[in-house]
Amino acid sequence: MIDMADIIIKRYRPEEFPRHLDFLERMTVTKGTVEDWHALKSLHYKTDGKPFAPTYYRCELDDRLVGVVVMAYPKLLLAPRHRMFPKLKPTTNTTVANQYWGRYVNNNFAVISRSVVDTQYRGVGVSYRMINLVSRMHDRPIIEIQSSMSKYNPFAMKAGFKFIRPERPKSYESALRVFQRHFRSDPGDNEAIVKELFAMSESRRRRALRDLVADYHKNSSLAKAGRNRGTTIQDIADSLVDEASIVKLLKDIHNLSFTSPLYGVYRNPDFGRRLPDTLPLLAFDKQPLDKPLEIALPA
Hints:
Order of helices and strands: EHEEHHEHEHEHHHHHEE
CATH topology of the largest domain: Aminopeptidase
Low-confidence stretches: none
Radius of gyration: 23 Å
CATH superfamily of the largest domain: Gcn5-related N-acetyltransferase (GNAT)
Helix content: 25-40%
Strand content: 15-25%
Number of domains: 2
Strand order of the largest sheet: 6-7-5-4-3-2-1-8
Number of helices: 10
CATH class of the largest domain: Alpha Beta
CATH architecture of the largest domain: 3-Layer(aba) Sandwich
């Protein structure tokens, strides 16, 4: 029998708990290499594809790799950006306008393409601190993130990113009708769709692919602008020469019509300042999210 008189219940106040684990004091954030990404990319839910002109940042603990952030140049055309910044939406599609627009976007925006933390260090406050510091270190006034994971884990919100409400893609209904016309499988199951395609007769497969391409071409700005300006439905159809090219088309359609990742931005309060090459992870804690880092700057 347990003597209830021996049981003591004590209520602690939040301020009595430490703000962070002790070993976070030894973590630092600095520029890394593609090898850092290769070391941890198997722990990320999205490993395919390569961002344009990536810059790598690493978080380390006593020279041990803890996390990686991949920063890249942004997409020139992005519907959620146009909703958040309506005055930035281009109104023409000429070579001169596209060149000017491209320079403006590249000079003012960057995007967090990937972010991953070693599973051993998850849940202790590394991710949002690392993302915030990298966003400050990267010399752009506005840092973007498009993240499906942010629907379930508010790490980017904690890092200071402001999000807009996601919308169902405008092409959802038309894309769904095309898939329902030709396939039994779920449109999101690319592997099953590919199996169905290659089980079809040649003529039926060509018809299905042409319908998919036509709907994608109609709804995708990226398929017709920039370096793809002037691309026709037939051009895209002619590029489907093997299974890999078909899988890429299906992924592009899925991203365009069936996904709605959260879009958020962080306005870099340290833009234009020359920050140290290495920052302590806990530099995040010393100032509000929208204020410059309270840290000694290099001479």
